Request: fold
Amino acid sequence: MSKVLAVDLGGTKIYSALVNRSGEITSGDIRPTNAQDGYQGVVKRILASIARVNTLDEPAVGVGVAVPAYIDPQEGRILFAPNLKWQAVDLKKDLEDALGLPVWLDNDANLAALGEHRYGAGKGYHNLVYITVSTGVGGGLILDGKLYRGAFGGAGEFGHMIAAPEGPGCSCGNIGCLEGVASGCAIKREAQNLVKSGRGHHMLSLAGTIEKIDARVVGQAAAEGDLDAQEILARAGRYLGIAIASVANLLNPEVFIIGGGVACGVGKLILDPAFNEAYRRTYPPYRDSLKIVPAVLRAQTGVLGAAAYAWDQLDQIKR
Amino acid sequence: MSKVLAVDLGGTKIYSALVNRSGEITSGDIRPTNAQDGYQGVVKRILASIARVNTLDEPAVGVGVAVPAYIDPQEGRILFAPNLKWQAVDLKKDLEDALGLPVWLDNDANLAALGEHRYGAGKGYHNLVYITVSTGVGGGLILDGKLYRGAFGGAGEFGHMIAAPEGPGCSCGNIGCLEGVASGCAIKREAQNLVKSGRGHHMLSLAGTIEKIDARVVGQAAAEGDLDAQEILARAGRYLGIAIASVANLLNPEVFIIGGGVACGVGKLILDPAFNEAYRRTYPPYRDSLKIVPAVLRAQTGVLGAAAYAWDQLDQIKR
Reply:
């Protein structure tokens, strides 16, 4: 049975895996990215990681790579990868030259959506919106059964939908973006501000110092019953729900799938307020079909998305 | 050269036309809907209007109908048409039985998007968002070159995106919808409220009485230089821009096309503030590709969209 190689290239880790058509991982390798070594250094580490998983008795027929980057949808060149500090590099060509196999790249949020669609919480749906809530907020869209990339490959910037028009500044320079009020960074900022104002004692005692308070600490405090922490997460969830309602009314998808470290870590404490807010703001005729579910692939989201993408591309070549 | 019949069924008017593949209208008929006569009465009027335009020397090969309704995307049955007060009627079957021709129905905003895509401001684009600003606010989406209907046929409810989370109530029962702050109804309400508060003298003198102040009066006063009226339109435009930015960041389309009576009537007075607000809130990498243009088909939007839809369906049958 043939296999594909799948690589989830992150800012901190490289995760390579050999994956069959059913999405089963038969071997895997995880190692640090060491982005500070520069592009050539990271390419070497990717190749070493691949060499480790690509066993000779069943060699892979193609390679999918999930990259935290903007990618030229026609050529597959990386235009800009902020976390890796790369600009205008041709990772597809460099890997193809080294491996002698076809390589396909796409943005990590797009491939996470594809992975959940093929192998995870989105199996069987034709229209889904995948949202990741971690340090930032991102997403990907499967519309009419296919990954939707937009005109310039940039669709799915869910984190930059306007959820709080007069709200705080966002890392992108605008104000009012969802990412500025519902990301891991926003949760951390809100918690630290609360402690500075003299409240949030439980979060402070868990973290030790104010600087160490982050979304994980807020999640732990909330799980232990701390009302301040619960309210911070609920507020983030309500903003998430506002953006979900806008998308429900615009795209009328069958399901929203929520993944990412923060959402997975705190679970219902953010998803329940998100659902309630989205429900009350969804256009009444669509309301009862609103469905928001947690992602299921977790740490495998990236590699399984990359694998699904490689399988799709191989199938297209065959046709 | 063969033709299709196209019908734009509105709450007040029926517009029927014979249309060739290039979108040229070779004969047309406009008559009142008289919705108060009930479903059978309106069907009779549609058939009479069609009989008027369907000349015997070049009989039509199919019929497209734009309906202000929710339509079952599989069966083509009308589920609910609030303006006509219809529920669960099978207009497709009733027209097919009477005409002996294949008939295809779709929602009027979807078909307006298709019409602008095929014959209007959207020619040559693959990803576009059509927005109509009239009494209400609606829209339709062309994604990857095709009309996108969503899971349950309800995509494109642009007017119910959340543009002002704590804003005024909307006709749908929710709060904060774009329609509640940027529609013809919202503009009328804002103008009447301003006059009640003792300002807006120019609008009052144009209208005669406060009850007669509507979006048309506000547009006229604004065109004549009235600052109160201009600010009302600019505010509506800014809310429109907030929702456009959200969609730009989510879907990354090539172009936004703005139609509908209010937007066409007041033009730049609403579109310029919309563009400025959308531009400053669009995710920086996409900002310089943001394009917002006026619709061009105006009164023909519905019939040309219905014609494009009939041509598409005929082409699918041939394949």
In short: The domain at 121-296 of chain A is CATH 3.30.420.40 (Nucleotidyltransferase; domain 5). The radius of gyration of chain A is 20 Å.
